[in-house]
Amino acid sequence: MYIIVGLGNPERKYDGTRHNIGFSAITALADACHISVDTRKHKALIGKGMIGGQKVILAQPLTYMNLSGESVRELADYYKIDPAEELIVIYDDVNLETGRLRIRAKGSAGGHNGIKNIIAHLGGQEFYRIRIGVGQKPAGWDLADYVLGRFPREEEPAVREALEKTVQACEVILTENIQTAMNRFNS
């Protein structure tokens, strides 16, 4: 079984923001794979289903971004998964051009508070990640204001394409392996 977690903030006012691209990815996966993400459990909104012949739990933590580890830890413990091989976390990255993907098998938080919290709660950095580029903040902008802002209209096609590629990347990880996904989708 795999747990695929998309990071974001739960209130409606955050829908469609850069910081909520992880939530958007879970919605895209759920739609593509006909999984209803509508059950409140483990401090998250979750859905159970199959992707590529594998059992999956799709999750959107309801703890707010900076406390995502609380939900991820509960999910990992309850479903008795090995985070190093059965957990995929999808989140925003301001160091990547909008729409670009970067897949890794492990690594540091890279300044992302949601990932810092997950690492703290899991006690290690070994879990799969799919980072979706949301672009660098413009000079003079506050980082929080930038990531909590919405994508401009001209970036929407790149965001849609990134979400489609994220769905494909998850399927490749589940049916083949992380290395194949990295080779195919890291740009």
Let me know the average pLDDT: 97
Task: List segments where confidence is low: pLDDT < 50 over at least 5 consecutive residues.
Answer: none
DSSP helix fraction: 25-40%
Intertermini distance? 28 Å
Query: What amount of the residues lies in strands?
Result: 15-25%
Structural class: alpha/beta
CATH topology: Rossmann fold
Query: What is the strand tally?
Result: 7
What global shape is seen?
Answer: globular
- CATH hierarchy, class: Alpha Beta
Radius of gyration, in Å, reads 15 Å
H/E topology pattern: EHEEEHHEEHEHHH
Task: Reconstruct the topology from this structure.
Elements: E1 2-6, H1 21-33, E2 39-41, E3 44-51, E4 54-61, H2 68-78, H3 83-86, E5 87-93, E6 101-104, H4 113-122, E7 128-133, H5 143-147, H6 156-175, H7 178-185
Parallel strand pairs: 1-4, 1-5, 5-7
Antiparallel strand pairs: 2-3, 3-4, 6-7
Helix pairs in contact: 1-6, 2-4, 6-7
